Amino acid sequence: MTRYSRISGTGSYLPPRRVTNAELAADLASRGVETSDQWIVERTGIHARHFAAPDVTSSDLALPAARQAIEAAGIQAGDIDLIVLATSTPDMVFPSAACILQSKLGIAGCPAFDVQAVCSGFVYALTVADAMIRTGAARKALVVGAEVFSRILDFSDRTTCVLFGDGAGAVVLEASDTPGILASDLHADGRHVGILCVPGTVSGGRVLGDPLLKMDGQAVFKLAVGVLEDAARATLAKAGKSAADIDWLIPHQANIRIMQGTARRLKLPMDKVIVTVNEHGNTSAASIPLALDASVRSGKVKKGDTLMLEGVGGGFTWGAVLLDF
Ligand code: UT7
Q1: What is the rounded CA–CA span in Å between residue 3 and residue 186?
Q2: Residues with beta carbon inside 6 Å of ligand 1?
Q3: Same fold, 4-176 and 181-324
Q4: In angstroms, what is the span from residue 88 Cα to ligand 1's centroid?
Q5: Architecture in CATH of 4-176
Q6: Which of 63, 218, 228, 293 qualifies as a FRET site for 32, CA 20 to 30 Å off?
Q7: Does domain 181-324 have CATH number 3.40.47.10?
C-alpha cells in the first residue's frame, strides 16, 4: 500500500510584545531614521509585528508552538520520531535548534535537524519530512518554522527593519494511508545570494563581516511573483490538479502586494488567500505555519480543504506544497 503523510495537528506562538508601525516609527525617529505607518501599510500591508525579548531564542518560540501542534494531533511528545526545524536564526552556531527543541520537549533519540532555506524553510522542511515518512524512516514528524529575525535587523536601515518579526509555527505530519501531501516543488538559484543575505560569519572568536540583514527589495519582489506562480503551477501539474481546486492559498507572508500578484496570476480571488502579514510582518520560515495555524484556529481552513503553501526567499529559494488538510 502506498504510504502518504498528512498533517494531524497545527500550533503556533508569537512572543507577547506586539509593536505597531506607529511605535516602531517613533522608536526609529529617535535614532534619526524616518518612516511612517502610512508608508509601511501602503507598500507592504504590515500593521504590526511581534518582537521577542532579548534573551528569547528560536527554540523558545518553537516549544509552545510544537506543544500546541502535538496536542492538536492528539499524541504525546514521546510519540514524535523526527524533528525538522526550519530557521535562519538558530539559537547557536551548533547544535541545531531542532536538537535544543527536542531536549526542551523532554524527548530523546529521534533524529532532529535544522533546515536552512530562509523564507522557503518551512516548505523545504515539510517536503523533507514527507519524503522521510513515505520511505518509512519516520511515522510522526514534528515540522517547525521558528525565527527571531529581530536579532539580525539593522535598525538604521528603514528599507528592511520595518518588514520583519519573530514567531514560530509547527505541524505534526503523520504517516497515512491517504494523502495528505499531494505534491511539492522546490527550487534554489544561488546566483542570487547577494539580493537577500546576512553576509557575516563567526571566525576566530569574532564576527567577521556584517551580521545584519541586507536586501535588494525590488529585485526580491520581481523574482518572487514569477517563481511563486511557476512553483504553484508545477505543483498542481504534479498532482493532476488545477488552480480551481485550491481552497486556500497560504503564501509566505512578506508583502501583501506579492500575495495579490500571485493570486492574480493564478486567477484566485483574494478571499481564498490567507493573510497574516498585517499582524505578523515577515517571520521568514515561521510565516507559513503561523498563517496555517491561525487559519485553522479561526475556522477558515477545515478538514479536507486543499491548501497550497508557498515559500520564497534568500538563497534564492522557492517552493510549494499542495496538500489535502
Ligand atoms: O522574505 C523574503 C522575501 N522578501 C520580500 O518579499 C521583500 C520583497 N520586497 C518588497 O516587499 C518591497 O520591495 C519593499 C517593501 C522592500 C519596498 O517596497 P517598494 O515599493 O519596492 O519601495 P522602493 O524600494 O521602491 O522604495 C520607494 C521609496 C524610496 O524612496 P525614493 O528613492 O523613491 O525617494 C525608499 O527610500 O520608499 C523609500 N522607503 C521608505 N520610506 C519610508 C523605503 N523604505 C521606507 C520606509 N519608510 N520604511
Answers
A1: 21
A2: 35, 39-40, 43-44, 119, 158-159, 162, 196, 217-218, 220-221, 224, 254-255, 258, 282, 312-313
A3: yes
A4: 22
A5: 3-Layer(aba) Sandwich (3.40)
A6: 218
A7: yes
Ligand 1 center to residue 225 CA distance, Å?
Answer: 16
Which three three-digit cell numbers place residue 119?
Answer: 523564507
- pLDDT at residue 1 above 90? no
- Tell me: the pLDDT tens digits for 113-157? 999 999 999 999 999 999 999 999 999 999 999 999 999 999 999
Question: What is the grid cell recorded at 118?
Answer: 530562509
Residue extents of the structural domains in the chain: 4-176, 181-324
In the predicted model, what is the mean pLDDT of the chain? 97
pLDDT (average), residues 23-45: 98
Q: How confident is the model at residue 2 (pLDDT cuts 50, 70, 90)?
A: confident
Tell the residue nearest (CA) to atom 16 of ligand 1: 217
DSSP letter at 268 equals -
Nearest-atom index, ligand 1, CA of 162: 48
Nearest CA owner, ligand 1 atom 2 = 313
**What positions carry a catalytic annotation?**
119, 252, 282
In degrees rounded to 5, what are phi and psi of residue 72?
Answer: -65, -30
Q: CA 281 to CA 256: how far, in whole Å?
A: 10
Of 307, 312, 293, 7, the closest CA to residue 129 belongs to 7
